[in-house]
Write a structure and sequence with these properties.
The complex is a heterodimer. By secondary structure, chain A is mainly α. Chain A contains 25 helices and 2 strands. The N and C termini of chain A lie far apart (97 Å). Chain B has a two-stranded antiparallel sheet with strand order 1-2. Chain B is globular. Classes of the chains: A mainly alpha, B mainly alpha. At the A-B interface, strand 1, helix 5, helix 6 and helix 24 of A face helix 7, helix 13, helix 15, helix 17 and helix 18 of B. Chain B: It is found in: Endomembrane system; Membrane. Chain B: This is NADH dehydrogenase subunit M.
């Protein structure tokens, strides 16, 4: 029963993929979109079943299908594990996935390759489910690389544009740098514990007496590199903003709500391993905090609506890593969930705007949209309030918990995270004001076409806005359902229920005031003073550095891409030719010896006689000397 | 029933193809290729049911040479690789017209015969004869039916011939020395020899020269890219798909068990050499202008990793190497076929003259992409199983080896995706590109099917090869 349902859960999207690849074109656009969506709905329903099953059976459900890979002293099977963590992830992957599929039916309707779009989107959900429900690290790795592939396919969906293709390629390669880290981590774990299975690993670690801490730290660090790639953390974050080349629903699903949270999933999954490596945890916390700040500063000055949201995602992911590094896994998971709601809503909202403006993404050419796009505006406003940490929206609760944990551990980290949060409030409301307030700044032709998006687009927005509003309820500061639900996963006792005293309320107040200050600055600049960001060439000073993303892309380009290409050219033009001429040289030497040797056989009897006599003399002398 | 049947079948096939005439030669060759495959599958079945399908008879009395064919899991796996790829390779040629087809197809079967012989031979001299015999057909195939300027082609092909022949001579000397010690060429007798460390080193090096040139391992690879480029598609497939596996197979079968002391003593050097090949090949592949040359360097990188795996002397290294040999055989044949399909339409192999093909031929684009993904070892492809196992074995020696060898997953993705982008993507090409024909599609689907099936379920192959690899490892660890 469970096995069949698990297969249904997993294979429904895959069947959708196959169907759309082979028959999608012939059955028409709407039908292909509807089938794609229904397959994810099926998975969502099965997930609900598993949610119930896990509630009744907190120790989880394990399913093993067949032996996959054989390593010297252990086998890796193709198996699934349903527990609190995987079910939670499944819920929002398939839930938000269904909504975004639905949204795409309308959004992508003008694209000639809509069936392919749905095929890839279905394939993505298939791999994401694999990633989440795998019972060992190698099945996770299938999903891990598989979602990377789908991300590649969807970023480069409009493959006539080579810039989009470059972005897709960059995403794939940067992810693979992380993947190598993940693989190395897997190798180390495999050789330390002779298993890659989560459950066995957990028991092995719990039961072990003399653990090799050096190698455990190495494994944790390598795995963290993998997480950096997938979840766009410093130094492997630059692919995510470029990934905005893909269709906007893809950005919402893959590059905000689901795939980029895979790193957090993996670290939470292996929390018992990371708990043993405090040094690595510190690194994670610092990298997370720094990433959240750096990305937030870049987002301050971007003018492309999707770029702002992309850097915002990097920044929010940084906050989640901060929580992970501080050992507050359940807090990170909480923020993953609320972030999935409001960020998906924000991306879909920006998609609705872009759709209405026929592809315009520059906020300088927007404005005044709240009059015509009421639903989009209201949902966008709610999500902006949520991400800015204004109560009672969901983001307030999750972000507040992160800040509180940070404050307990390290004031500097708390300060960095608070600063990032303040900036978040600023750039989100900057975005909101520029897009929806004041007068429309686009062309007259665009203006005449302005319209609210159809129901297929607004319905997911409304649902997500409701979730973004209420999502905080799952983990209230004094009564957290989420923490209790996740408790069986953690070996350490989950962060003890906060004793809620004055200092906690003060912290909360500070955070809210910070958010309001950010909003206030945005208000005074963009509403009161009616400013509009300047043209690209007029940006100067530090703003220019920020606008150009600290020139990190350029630095990476000259440091890595150029040097490896230069090396390649050198190898091709110099080393290869030299090696080749060496081999030919050997041939030439042989040839030359033969040529010179040929002269000995001149045919002159006199020379032969001379050589003959000389030879005999030599032999006789030798014999004499030998005696 | 024993394995000599396959040899007879292929040899008869070669003759039958030659006398059948140009018109039907390709079909006759395909028929015999398929028969050989069917026959190997039947033999596999016999082998699995525990029957002895080896073959042994006295061949020459003075010196003492036997016609010994040994069928264990390892050689059967290589036999299956050869007999599965041969008909596919013949089938891929159906869209191209070859002059003097009867000789062409006859040579393919003859080459298949020699390679099967190499994989099965259990007598040093017999093995050496098959090893050299395989060189003759590929020499003519590349020389006569190859492409590009005839003079340049001749230069490249003759270099290849002399170079590999010269390398193999050292192996012959090693065998003669071994014969003097053992009084027999039989592999079991050679396994039993107790050679001193110095003797082992020299023999190890003599073998190494032959194998390093054939595989090729850097810096002995200079013949490769040019010959791959100049040879006809079929020749390149035979070379890269099967023939270079002769060298890798021989490391496992002959070199390591006969000279285990040397192999252990110098393990780090040879693993390093393989890993260096991975990085070097990948980097050179980045800036290739010719599609076939790019694939040649990618092949250099992949076989470097396989060689590194064999030299780890661990069960994972050996098993991963054999799995990866098979996976690489299929994927590289597929990719060279892709290059041939493009050549049939655009008459070029220069990457910069391509681009914008995907919009015109969705089926071709999908199949090409799947092969690219297999080549970069995406999980669920067979290549991942092999590459993962090999990298795991490297990590057991030293985790930095796994890191350096693992750069293939980054660099491989880089050069393959870059190539795919340049060849397939971008604005629609002004030149028409017809989507794959049924025949082309069928061959590609077969290859892709094999790669994904065994990627998810490698167990049959793992179970087939593991016992014999453990046997060999026992021989290696006898000292």
């Amino acid at each position: 029963m469970n096995t069949n349902l698990a297969l249904l859960l997993l294979l429904a999207p895959f069947i959708g993929f196959l169907f759309n690849i082979f028959f999608g074109k012939s059955i028409g656009k709407t039908a292909s979109g509807v089938i794609g969506t229904l397959m994810i709905v099926v998975s969502f329903i099965v997930t609900l079943y598993f949610f119930g099953a896990i509630t009744a059976k907190p120790e989880g459900i394990h399913i093993s299908l067949f032996d996959w890979i054989q390593i010297s002293n252990f086998k890796v099977d193709f198996g699934f594990q349903f527990d609190q963590l995987s079910v939670l992830w499944l819920l929002f992957v398939t839930g938000i996935g269904s909504l975004i599929h639905m949204y795409s039916i309308s959004y992508m309707h003008d694209d000639e390759n809509m069936h392919k779009y749905f095929a890839y989107l279905n394939l993505f959900i298939f791999f994401m489910i694999t990633l989440v429900i795998g019972s060992n690290l190698l099945v996770l790795f299938i999903g891990w690389e598989g979602v990377g592939l789908c991300s590649y396919l969807l970023i480069g969906f409009w493959h006539k544009n080579q810039e989009f293709n470059d972005a897709a390629k960059k995403a794939f390669i940067m992810n693979r740098i992380g993947d190598l880290g993940l693989l190395i981590g897997i190798f180390i774990i495999g050789s330390l514990f002779s298993t890659l299975d989560y459950a066995t690993l957990k028991t092995a670690i719990a039961g072990a007496t003399d653990l090799n801490m050096y190698w455990i730290s190495a494994a944790a660090f390598a795995l963290f590199i993998g997480a950096c790639g997938k979840s766009a953390q410093i130094p492997l974050y630059t692919w995510l903003p470029d990934a905005m080349a893909g269709p906007t629903p893809v950005s919402a699903l893959i590059h905000a709500a689901t795939m980029v949270t895979a790193g957090i999933f993996m670290i939470t999954r292996l929390n018992y391993l990371f708990d043993l490596a405090p040094d690595v945890q510190n690194i994670i916390a610092i990298v997370g905090a720094v990433t959240s700040l750096v990305a937030a500063t870049i987002a301050l000055v971007q003018t492309d609506i999707k770029k702002v949201l992309a850097y915002s995602t990097v920044s929010q992911l940084g906050l989640m890593f901060l929580a992970l590094g501080l050992g507050a896994y359940e807090v990170a998971v909480f923020h993953v969930i609320t972030h999935a709601f409001f960020k998906a809503c924000l991306f879909l909202g920006s998609g609705s705007v872009i759709h209405a403006l026929h592809g315009e993404q520059d906020m300088r050419k927007m404005g005044g949209l709240k009059k015509v796009m009421t639903i989009t505006f209201v949902t966008f406003l709610i999500s902006s309030l949520a991400i800015s940490g204004i109560p009672p929206f969901s983001g307030f609760f999750s972000k507040d918990e992160i800040l509180m944990v940070a404050f307990e551990h390290n004031k500097i980290l708390w300060f960095i995270a608070s600063l990032a949060s303040l900036m978040t409030a600023f750039y989100m409301f900057r975005l909101l004001y520029l897009t929806f307030f004041k007068e429309f700044r686009g062309t007259a032709e665009q203006k005449s076409h302005l319209h609210e998006s159809p129901t297929l687009i607004t319905f997911p927005l409304i649902v997500l806005a409701i979730l973004a509003t209420l999502g905080g309820l799952i983990s209230l500061p004094t009564n957290s359902w989420l923490n209790e639900y996740l408790a069986p996963l953690f070996t350490k006792v989950a962060t003890e229920e906060h004793h809620f005293g004055t200092s906690e309320y003060m912290l909360m107040l500070v955070a809210v005031i910070g958010g309001l200050v950010g909003i206030g600055i945005a208000y005074s600049k963009y509403i009161k003073q009616n400013l509009v960001p300047e043209e690209d060439e007029k940006i100067t000073g530090f703003a220019k550095v920020l606008y150009n993303k600290y020139y990190v892309d350029e630095i990476y380009d000259s440091l890595f891409v150029k040097s490896i290409n230069g090396l390649s050219k050198f190898f091709r033009d110099n080393v290869e030719t030299t090696l080749s001429s060496l081999v030919f040289g050997l041939g030439k030497v042989t040839n030359e010896i033969g040529f010179q040797g040929k002269k000995l056989q001149s045919g002159s009897i006199g020379f032969y006689l001379f050589a003959f006599v000389l030879g005999i003399c030599a032999i006789i002398t030798y014999l004499f000397l030998a005696q | 029933m024993n394995v000599s049947l396959i040899l007879i079948l292929l040899l008869v096939g070669a003759f039958a193809t030659y006398i059948s005439g140009d018109k039907v030669a390709s079909k006759v060759a395909l028929f015999f290729g398929l028969s050989a495959l069917g026959c190997s599958l039947v033999l596999l079945n016999h082998f699995n049911s525990g029957e002895n399908i080896s073959f042994l008879c006295q061949w020459i009395n003075q010196p003492n040479v036997s016609f010994a064919l040994k069928a264990d899991g390892l050689s059967i796996a290589m036999l299956l690789l050869t007999t599965a790829l041969t008909p596919i390779i013949i089938y891929t040629s159906f869209g191209t017209e070859y002059k003097n087809a009867k000789a062409f197809y006859s040579l393919i079967l003859f080459m298949s015969f020699a390679m099967v012989g190499t994989f099965l031979a259990a007598d040093g001299l017999l093995y050496y004869i098959f090893w050299e015999l395989a060189l003759i057909p590929i020499y003519f195939i590349a020389l006569i039916w190859g492409n590009g300027d005839a003079e340049e082609r001749k230069k490249a092909v003759v270099k290849f011939f002399i170079y590999t022949l010269a390398g193999s001579l050292f192996m012959l000397i090693a065998f003669i020395y071994l014969y003097q010690q053992a009084g027999s060429f039989l592999i079991e007798d050679l396994y039993k020899l107790n050679l001193s460390a110095t003797e082992q080193l020299w023999i190890f090096l003599a073998f190494f020269l032959a194998y390093a040139i054939k595989i090729p391992i850097i810096p002995f690879h200079t013949w490769q890219a040019n010959v791959y480029q100049k040879a006809p598609a079929v020749g390149t497939m035979l070379l890269s798909g099967i023939m270079l596996k002769m060298g890798l197979y021989s490391i496992i079968r002959w070199q390591l068990p006969i000279t285990p002391l040397a192999a252990k003593e110098y393990m780090y050097i040879f693993v390093s050499l393989g890993v260096a090949g991975v990085i070097y090949g990948s980097i050179v592949a980045l800036r290739q202008k010719d599609l076939k040359k790019l694939l040649a360097y990618s092949s250099l990188a992949h076989v470097g990793l396989i060689a590194a795996g064999t030299y780890t002397l661990t069960i994972d290294g050996l098993r991963g190497a054999v799995l990866q040999m098979i996976a690489h055989g299929f994927v590289v044949v597929g990719l060279f076929f892709i290059s041939e399909i493009i050549f049939r339409r655009y008459e070029t192999r220069t990457i910069s003259e391509m681009g914008g093909i995907r919009t015109q031929s969705p089926k071709f684009a999908s199949m090409f992409l799947l092969l690219v993904l297999a080549s970069v070892a995406l999980p669920t492809t067979f290549n991942f199983v092999g590459e993962f196992t090999v990298l795991y074995s490297l990590s057991q020696i030293n985790v930095w080896f796994a890191f350096l060898g693992g750069t293939t997953i980054i660099l491989g993705a880089y050069y393959m995706l870059k190539m795919y982008q340049q060849v397939m993507l971008g604005e629609t090409n002004t030149k028409v590109f017809a989507d794959v024909t049924f025949k082309e599609g069928f061959a590609l689907v077969l290859i892709i099917g094999v790669l994904f099936f065994f990627g998810m379920y490698p167990k049959p192959i793992t179970d087939l090869i593991t016992p014999s690899l453990e046997e060999i490892l026992k021989v290696i660890n006898r000292v």
